[in-house]
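This part of the workshop introduces the protein records we will be handling. Backbone structure tokens are a discrete shorthand for how the chain folds in space. Once this layout is familiar, the rest of the handout is easier to follow. The record below serves as our worked example for the rest of this section.
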Amino acid sequence: MTGRALLNLVAAAASAAAVCAAAGCRGDTSDSPPRQYFPDLDDQPKLKAQTRSTFFKEFQDTDEDGKPGGWFGRSMREPVAGTVPFGAKGFTAGFEGRDFSRRAKYLRDDDRVYRGEEPMLDGKGLPLRDDAGVPRVKYVKNIPVPVTAELLALGQKKYDIYCLPCHGGDGAGKGLVGVRWAYGLPSFHQDQYRHGGEKGDDGYLFHVIRNGVANPGGKYPLKMPSYAQKVDEFETWAIVAHLRVLQASQGATPADVPGEADRIDLERRRDRGLPAPAATGATGPTGAGTN
């Protein structure tokens, strides 16, 4: 028998033995744990969505005894700044037929849109910096995305879902949950929340929705929770736009209604004591728009 024939015979025998062994194991049960040839691939540390996490420092808390509590930790995280998810559409090799429309959303490199902030400038138009050299920022005064009928409709939808229970349908802070809150909720119709007020910048309202309201010295770190996990940045701006609509609705007169036919109909209904017709469209709120 030649060496090659012997090698082929050994290979055939080994293959037959492997097949027999596999067939013999089919249907068998065992109390022993399965073999793990690559344990680090089978057992990887991970966090599931909506589960609590105390790993990230900025979301940790302490209990009354000063011990780590972690009650506010969340496992879901924003992508690291300047990175995009691996395999995301538009970021694989090659450009032909690729869709790059989500690039800005992943990179979030426009602070005005994604953080509601813009740099503070000196008299020469140069960015101001603090003693450590970090650029100083301020809230944007006006919504930095186009305020369209679609954006306003989206804002009303999201407001009714997430904001109305506490702040009420008119923004006066008298929602079913709001009147039972631990403290009285403010009304968005106060001058401080209007343009020019202490808290009247659109960027400030955006920041509150995204990050909540701090509660210094309180048992819980936030008086109002963050809704960043509920609405994205553009939905947040839509809510801000709807808040401006609610403000504009206070003290409005038929003269503010666009379209002569609609004004006449509204005045006729008011004279007869009838309710105003349901809105079928939306117009830009007072003071809202693009810079």
